[in-house]
Design goal:
- The protein is an alpha+beta fold.
- It has three domains: about 220 residues, Bira Bifunctional Protein, Domain 2 (BirA Bifunctional Protein, domain 2); about 55 residues, no CATH class; about 90 residues, Rossmann fold, CATH 3.40.50.
- It contains 15 helices and 16 strands.
- The strands form three sheets. An eight-stranded mixed β-sheet has the order 1-5-6-11-10-9-7-8. Strands 13-12-14-15-16 form a five-stranded mixed β-sheet, with helices on both faces.
- A hairpin with an 8-residue loop joins strand 9 and strand 10.
- The longest helix is centred in the N-terminal third of the chain and has 18 residues.
- It is elongated, with a radius of gyration of 28 Å.
Length: about 425
């Protein structure tokens, strides 16, 4: 075998498909309940959209994007996240004239060249939610509640929110100056990445995962003490709503998320019992992003959640998905007349929405019965020379080990009654 999947990608095999079906079904149920509609932006966009939207000094833009020149010499990037593309879609398609808030969701692959890790790959699938056009903290609660309800209905235990406010263009610059002054007193102990962030993207200092930087982060000034009145009121109101709903949360002063467009609310949903990476999703407000991309001021909030991460967490918590409907009946046959009747009966059963397998080839009935056992079907309909000659079907119940003869024209009705379809 000379060909293998590219590092950081993976094949989704049949035994994992029930998880994907189960999660997608829940996503559609919950987004419909909240009034969100699906949109599907392209997998690739102009590179400048992500540089402008995500932030030139973010790790995503500097290190992780899959960027290339197409045949027209245009710089194209496989999307590293959904929000910038959804904002472009929102503006280009005139969705800004719709009643507010505009509620959207997407499901699809995103691409980041980063170190593969548990539940995170260089190509992974994301469930993404966006609500545009409303400043009310109640919409923050609604978006956060979509995530909460999804994980709760999937069966996750120990759910809690991690919550912070990153301020706004009015109050954040003053905080960043305070943060920089603090870090300059610790320049000799922080990592090289943080030395670079100090001048280029100071808020990301709080997001550093290096052990050497943790003591510095622990004593760093917290942004909640530097919020303007508007940001403070917004943050306090959101907390009052969470209290009203009985949703547990922790104020996490280190939580800033990794993208430049965040303002005010940032949050993660954590679940217990899923290993060292407790977060199953993250998001926040991006009130200036649409304006930054050429539109009018349009507040917004959203989140993204990796499907692969959800599946890994479900497995770690022992959560089993609903099974995919598997074949119930197999038609075994011998002789030309038996084969023709088997083909006819197979498609009639399928028209009745009954999952049915047809045996192919010239194998013996014994061999076909072995296959039926391996495929774990419940009933085998046998159409051999005897059966065709007597105008009957032999129906074998593999679960109970019983076999009965039924008139051919009553076979479909008999099986339907047995399986209650």
């Amino acid at each position: 075998m000379n060909y293998k999947s590219v590092t950081g990608t993976r094949d989704v095999l049949p035994d994992e498909q029930p998880y994907w079906r189960f999660i997608e079904k829940k996503i559609y149920e919950i987004t419909s309940l909240y009034g969100y509609q699906r949109v599907d932006p392209p997998v690739f966009e102009q590179t400048r959209l992500f540089i402008r939207g995500v932030g030139e000094t973010t790790d995503i833009v500097e290190k992780e994007m899959y960027t290339f020149l197409d045949k027209g010499k245009n710089s194209i990037t496989l999307r590293p996240e959904f929000t910038a593309g959804v904002m472009r879609l929102y503006l280009q398609n005139g969705m800004h004239v719709l009643p507010k808030p505009v509620k959207l969701f997407s499901i699809g692959p995103i691409f980041r060249y980063e170190r593969p890790q548990a539940g995170r790959f260089r190509q992974h699938t994301q469930f993404n939610v966006e609500a545009l056009g409303e400043l009310d903290p109640a919409i923050d609660l609604e978006v956060m509640s979509i995530a909460w309800q999804l994980y709760a209905e999937l069966g996750f235990k120990g759910l809690t929110f991690q919550l912070n406010s990153t301020g706004c263009p009015e109050c954040r610059p003053k905080y960043i100056e305070t943060l920089k002054a603090y870090y300059k007193n610790h320049i000799d102990v922080i990592c090289d990445d943080c030395k670079r962030r100090l001048d280029r993207n100071a808020l990301r200092l709080l997001d550093c995962k290096k052990d050497s930087c943790q003591p510095v982060i622990a004593k760093a000034p917290v942004i909640s003490e530097h919020l303007c009145d508007e940001c403070r009121d917004h943050f306090q109101t959101l907390q009052s709503y969470l209290n009203l709903m009985g949703r547990p949360y922790t104020i996490n002063h280190k939580l800033v998320r990794g993208l430049d467009y965040y303002t005010k609310t940032v949050f993660e949903v954590w679940a217990q019992g899923i290993g060292s990476q407790n977060a199953v999703c993250g998001g926040g407000r991006y009130d200036g992003l649409v304006e930054q991309l050429g539109g009018q001021f349009t507040p917004g909030i959203g989140f993204g959640s990796g499907i692969e991460r959800i599946i890994l967490s479900m497995k770690e918590q022992g959560i089993e998905p609903d099974p995919i409907l598997s074949p119930i009946v197999m038609i075994a046959h011998s002789g030309e007349a038996g084969r023709k009747k088997a083909v006819e009966m197979t498609f009639k059963l399928r028209e009745q929405k009954m999952p049915t397998l047809l045996s192919f080839g010239e194998r013996s009935l014994k061999s076909q019965l072995r296959e039926a056992n391996r495929r774990q079907v419940k009933f085998v309909v046998i159409l051999g020379e005897r059966e065709i000659g007597e105008n009957i079907a032999a129906i074998k119940d593999l679960h109970e080990g019983k076999q009965v003869d039924i008139p051919l024209d009553e076979t479909i009705k008999f099986i339907a009654e047995k399986v209650k379809l």
